[in-house]
Amino acid sequence: MFKKNSRLLILLLAISLLGCQAGFMKPSETSLPMSAGQPLIRVTVTSQGYYYHRPWEQRRPSTRNAIGVIVTGGHVLVTGLMVANHRYIELETLDTNEKQQAKVVVVDYEANLALLKPEDPDFLKGRKPMELASKVQTGDNLKVIQVKPTGDIVAGFGEVTAIELRAYAMGNYFLAYRLNCSLQYRLNNQTLPVIKRNSLAGLLLGFSSDKETRNVIPLPVIRHFLEDASKDNYEGFPLAGFRYGDITDPQLRRYIELPEDLTGIYVHKVIKGGPADRAGLQPGDVITNIDEHDISATGRYNHPFYGKTSVTHLIRTGYHVGDQVMIQIFRKQKLIELPVILDHRNPEEFLVPPYILDRAPDYRIVGGLLMQELSLDYIREYGKNWSSIAPVHLLYYNENQDYLEGHENGGKKIVIVTGIIPTPYTIGLEKFSNLVVKRINGKQIRNLADIAPALEKPVNGFHKIEVDQHPRIIYLDPEQIPNIHKLIEKRYRIPIQPVIRSTTPGLKTEGLER
How far apart are CA 434 and CA 86, in angstroms? Predict the structure, then answer.
C-alpha cells in the first residue's frame, strides 16, 4: 500500500510539473471579470527621439503600450517615460474598444509620472476614477494588473518586501516599493497599475521579464504629483539644494567636535543660489533635525508608516515647492535653526542637464566643427555601459558638476566640439571629438548662444577656437566658412542651423480642473 501511494504521489507531481511547462496559469495569477465602465484604459504611444551624437537625425518611430488608470478630473495616469518624445497618443477602452486621441496635460520625468487627457472630454464620461489606497506597508499583498489583447484582465499577485529609496530613470531618488511578483504575460506594457483592494497602490516602475522583484512608484509620489497637477502651475518635486554624507566615521565626529548625544548628516556642498544657500546653510554644517524629525548618522528619520526612511524622501515628497521647513544645524559648537523655503531645480539649471526630451537637441556647425552643450543624454548614447566607456572627462563633468567652481552663474554649460564633419577644408581634424570649448576669438563660451557673437570679430583674420584638449587651438578661415557650409548641406544634407521644436519638459501644458 505504501509503494502504491508513493507511485501515485510521484505521478501527480509529474503531471503538475508538465502542466506548468505547458503554460498552465500559476497560482500567483488569476483572470478577473470584465466590467463596464472600469477605470482602466489601454494607452498606445508613437514616439520618435533624436540621436544626440547626430542631433539633426531622428530615430525610427517606435510604439509603446501601457495600461493607464483613470483618475479624478477625467485624466489618465501613466508613467512619464511612456510619453517621452511622443508624436501620437491613443486611448482605448477595454470593454467597448472605442479609441480616442489624447494629449499630455502634465509630465514629470523626474518622478516618472504623466497625466493624459482625451481630445473629446466625453470619451471617459460615465467611467468612475480609481481611488488611491490609504496606505501600503511592508508585508502587504498587492496585485499587478495586465490586460490581454482580447481585453481580458489578468492579475499577478505579490508581496511588498521593502519600501526604500531607489534611483528612478532620470537619476533622481524617490521612494519605491519592492514587490516580489511573478508576471506570466509578456505584453511589453511600460505602465502597469498596482492595486490594493480595488484602489490604486502604485505604478510598476519598468518591466523585466527575467526578474520577479519589481520596483513600484509608491502612493506618496503619486499623491504628491496629483496634488501639484491640480494647481494652476505645476512646479514639480522640491529640493533643498545641498549635498550631504553620513557621519559614521568617528574621526569625522571628533574633527567637527560633534557631541555624543547628537546625530545628523554632514553638508559637503551647498548649491549656489539654491534654497539652502539662500537660507545660510554652509559646507561643514551638520543637519541634526528637519521640522522636528531627528536625523540619524546615515541620513534617516522615523516615518510613521515606513520606519527608518531616507531624509531625501522627507524633503522631496513630504513638502511642496514654496513650503518652509525648519532645519536645525550644528555649527561651531552651537545649535542654529535655519528656515529653508524649498524650490524645484529644472533640468536647464544644471551644468550638465540630466535629460533633453520632447524637443530636438540644439547644435551649431562652424566650419565643419559640430558643437553642442554637454548633456547626460549625450553621454548615455555611448551605450549600455556608458558610465565606464564614455570619455572620462565628460563623465567627470557630469559626476562633479555641483562641485566645479564658477558654473553657478545662470546659463553656464559645457560646450563641446562633438565631432568634425569631413570636408576638404577640415583635413587633419577628422580624428578630434569631445573637445571642451573654452574661448572663441578670446571670448569665453558659456553656452551655444555665445558662439555667434564670438565669431563677429576674428583674430588676425582667423577664428581662433581654444579647447581644453589636444590640439588646444583650432584656426578657421572666415572666408572659407560659407563654402564649407554649402558643401555640408549639399553633400550630407545636414542643416547648418537646427530647427528647434521646443517645449518645456516637466511643466503643465493645459489647465486642470481643481
Answer: 29
Grid cell listed for 85: 518624445
Answer yes or no: are the C-beta atoms of 441 and 406 closer than 8 Å: no
Give the containing element (helix H, strand E) for 272. none
Ramachandran bin of 171, using left for φ above 0, alpha for ψ from -120 to 50, beta for the remaining angles: left
Residue 428, number of CB atoms within 10 A of its CB: 8
Domains of the chain: 31-234 (2.40.10.120), 242-341 (2.30.42.10), 362-492 (3.20.190.20)
CA of 242: how far to CAs of 264, 267, 294, 388, in Å?
14, 7, 18, 26
**Which amino acid is it at 125?**
K
Report the distance separating Cα 167 and Cα 316, nearest Å: 13
Residue 3 has pLDDT above 90, yes or no: no
| Per-residue pLDDT tens over the stretch 364-403 | 999 999 999 999 999 999 999 999 999 999 999 999 998 8
CA dist., res. 333 & res. 257, Å (int): 7
Asked, as a colleague might, if the bond just before 238 is cis with ω within 30 of 0, I would say: no
Q: Count of H helices and E strands in the chain?
A: 10, 28
Q: What is the dihedral of CA 323, 326, 329, 331, to 10 degrees?
A: 90
Question: Cα–Cα distance between 261 and 273 in angstroms, integer?
Answer: 33
3-state secondary structure of 451: helix
> pTM of the prediction?
0.88
Q: Which amino acid is at 237?
A: F
Measured over the CA atoms of residue 318, residue 321, residue 322 and residue 325, the dihedral's sign is positive
